[in-house]
Amino acid sequence: MVRRRFSFGLVSRLSSPIYGRSPCSGGIWTPCLGQKRSFMTAKDLVESEEPEKKVTNRINMFSAINQALHTVLDSDPKSYVFGEDVGFGGVFRCTTALRDKFGRHRVFNTPLCEQAIVGFGIGLASMGNRAIAEIQFADYIFPALDQIVNEAAKYRYRSGNLFNCGGLTVRAPYGAVGHGGHYHSQSPEAFFCHVPGIKVVIPRSPSQAKGLLLASIRDPNPVVFFEPKWLYRLAVEEVPVDDYTLPLSSAEVMRKGSDITLVGWGAQLAIMEEACDEVSKLGISCELIDLRTLIPWDKELVEDSVNKTGRLLVSHEAPVTGGFGAEIAASITNSCFLRVQSLTQPQISTPAFS
């Protein structure tokens, strides 16, 4: 196995510019026809700061996710974890010991039916509960596409904000590990980024996974939370023991640079960080950004960076066509066109004639 070096920062911004400014995770996403998607302030949510000078343990990503689930179940008696095989810990052990501590009525196995898992979660969340549904592999989330896209995402809008299932979080491990085959290696995040009314979150490290998962579960919108299975055991770092959240819809500058902006998310950040180290030997200064939330994404931060560097490279693990990177490239090209063009115009030479 190739050993990879991880270096994770905690620099962040607390805004979601293209969808309206909002506190950390306290904005209710209310898409309107013919308008930009916007947020309304949720006064009942309390934003917590990013962790600083706290007691930490050095753990891997699946342990950090397990800690987050322990925290939620312990602090909120109306929270529930359910999915295929979660009772014994799940195939990746993210739910280990939860049923023993919190009981079978709050942590329980479901039939092998993704439609039913998400549909049950919608009903549970619409009654004021925190429903944390696990899809065993993201490759099998597609049977639940109708429930997520046509029910969970639209429930608030279709009822005129009388009802919602904002307490729903759908967890799913995604991405390739080198031996999963075509049914256990997909990266389907772009499908859900097309849908107004849900949020899509992908962490890159253990501390990010814990803070972002806690924020997702407490967010007043349904969230699809993809976990890079390649990093479950490989990524290890110091993670705060206490309860904390990280801001959704707020990208993070992992390293500052002046020559080119690199944007990515999830497991791809480790590869991009290595690339930054390699090109630095050639004197190229890279600004590396972790998007963290894909929808609504932090367009303002990326724009600021590209306006500074004049160049943009988006790298992600996904099918060749229709990836979310194309949305970022198109949006930034539209808003930063003159700045990017001024630095990338080809040199035109006059041909010589005899």
Automatic annotation (TrEMBL):
Its EC number is 1.2.4.4. Keywords: Oxidoreductase. It catalyses: N(6)-[(R)-lipoyl]-L-lysyl-[protein] + 3-methyl-2-oxobutanoate + H(+) = N(6)-[(R)-S(8)-2-methylpropanoyldihydrolipoyl]-L-lysyl-[protein] + CO2. It comes from the Eukaryota. Its cofactor is thiamine diphosphate. The keyword Oxidoreductase applies. The keyword RNA-binding does not apply. It is an enzyme of class 1 (oxidoreductase). GO terms for molecular function: branched-chain 2-oxo acid dehydrogenase activity. Residues 59-234 form the Transketolase-like pyrimidine-binding domain. Gene3D superfamilies: 3.40.50.920, 3.40.50.970. It holds the Pfam family Transket_pyr. This is 3-methyl-2-oxobutanoate dehydrogenase (2-methylpropanoyl-transferring). It comes from Physcomitrium patens (Spreading-leaved earth moss).
